[in-house]
Amino acid sequence: MPRLLLIGAGGHGRAVLSALRDAGWPEPAGVLDDGGGALPGVPCLGPVSRAAALWRDGLRAAHVALGRNALRRDIGESLLAIGFALPPILHPSAVLARDAALGEGGVAMPRAVLGAAARAGPHAILNSGCIVEHDCVIGPACHVAPGAVLGGGVRLGAGVLIGLQAGVGPGLRIGDDAIVALGAAVVADVPAGATVAGVPARPLPG
Ligand SMILES: CC(C)(COP(=O)(O)OP(=O)(O)OC[C@H]1O[C@@H](n2cnc3c(N)ncnc32)[C@H](O)[C@@H]1OP(=O)(O)O)[C@@H](O)C(=O)NCCC(=O)NCCS
What we know:
- The protein is an alpha/beta fold.
- It has helices at residues 11-22, 51-56, 69-82; strands at residues 4-7, 30-32, 44-46, 61-64, 89-90, 95-96, 101-102, 107-108, 113-114, 119-120, 125-126, 131-132, 137-138, 143-144, 149-150, 155-156, 161-162, 167-168, 173-174, 179-180, 185-186, 195-197, 202-203.
- It folds into 2 domains: 4-86, 3-Layer(aba) Sandwich (Rossmann fold), CATH 3.40.50; 88-195, 3 Solenoid (UDP N-Acetylglucosamine Acyltransferase, domain 1), CATH 2.160.10.10.
- The strands form 4 sheets. An 8-stranded mixed beta sheet has the order 5-8-11-14-17-20-22-23, covered by helices on one side. A 6-stranded parallel beta sheet has the order 6-9-12-15-18-21, with no helix packed on it.
- Bound molecules: coenzyme A (COA).
- Residues 127, 145-146, 163-164, 179, 181-183, 195, 197-198, 204 line the site of coenzyme A.
């Protein structure tokens, strides 16, 4: 477990720091945050633009702890281009099937479940208590929020947000950058860019 450079000192950053400590990672080398935010006990090393200089100084691993999917993906990809490793982070109470995979830059928070043969792409957030059932395929930079449940074989495109305690029926497809509102019950495929809400889930205008 290398010392990580963290990006993002907001709420998700605090949650990731807590997961790292629970999992026995070394204390992070520092945190970069464009808003000047701080994480308890972690040195503030400046804005995100300092990442390349810190790599030249010898830091080699990082994690982007930002909740916004597109920003997390863009910064994560720029760190990979610099040469940083983005090792996935697993809270010790997360459950990953032996044949499940969590991509680089991903995090599985407390009690998240990634079922048999499920795949989560790079920069994924599997948030507290979510269940991603067997054979699901999650595209890059998705966020499955706390308590959300994906039935078996669900496929998410890139940058999808599945909101708090939402459910997606088995085998359904959710297109790129779609948003499933908190508490929604998705019973049909969702097109790219759509926002759906309610039980059963229907498109929200706009
Ligand atoms: C769907 C969502 C993106 C809409 O946000 P928004 O664009 O700011 O929309 P508004 O709050 O202005 O609401 C617009 C309309 O949708 C309705 N609506 C919003 N969220 C809803 C939900 N979860 N279920 C049903 N209806 C909802 C509102 O009541 C409102 O209806 P009205 O026009 O009849 O008054 C947001 O409510 C949501 O669910 N975000 C996900 C949050 C989440 O789980 N984050 C993860 C945290 S870890």
